[in-house]
Design brief:
The chain has three helices and six strands. The chain has 93 residues and is an alpha/beta fold. Helix 3 links the parallel strand 5 and strand 6.
């Protein structure tokens, strides 16, 4: 059974911190065989750089046999996922 890991996302994810967050998630997910949950409860804003980070990790998880699930996504951030088409392939609960 795959390990379950929850990552609490920061209030803002933008060009200033997206690379740091991607590095944290990359290290946290290791060989990508885990079930990763990204908790958006505190997140109020995500930029295109942040979207790339979420996509990078999602692709890594899929390749490694793990999963990525996004929880507590605000309506404003969900709208960004909808407009960009990310909602079609991300698991958002």
């Amino acid at each position: 059974m795959a390990e379950k890991v929850v990552y609490k996302l920061r209030e803002r994810v933008d060009a200033n911190n997206a690379q740091e967050i991607q590095k944290e998630l990359d290290e946290l997910t290791g060989d990508a065989s885990i079930n990763l949950t990204i908790d958006f409860a505190d997140n109020k804003y995500i930029s295109s750089a942040g979207l790339r980070t979420i996509l990078f990790i999602q692709k890594k998880m899929k390749k490694g046999g793990g999963t990525e699930t996004l929880i507590n996504v605000s309506d404003a951030v969900k709208e960004i996922f909808d407009v960009t088409g990310y909602s079609r392939f991300l698991a958002i609960e």
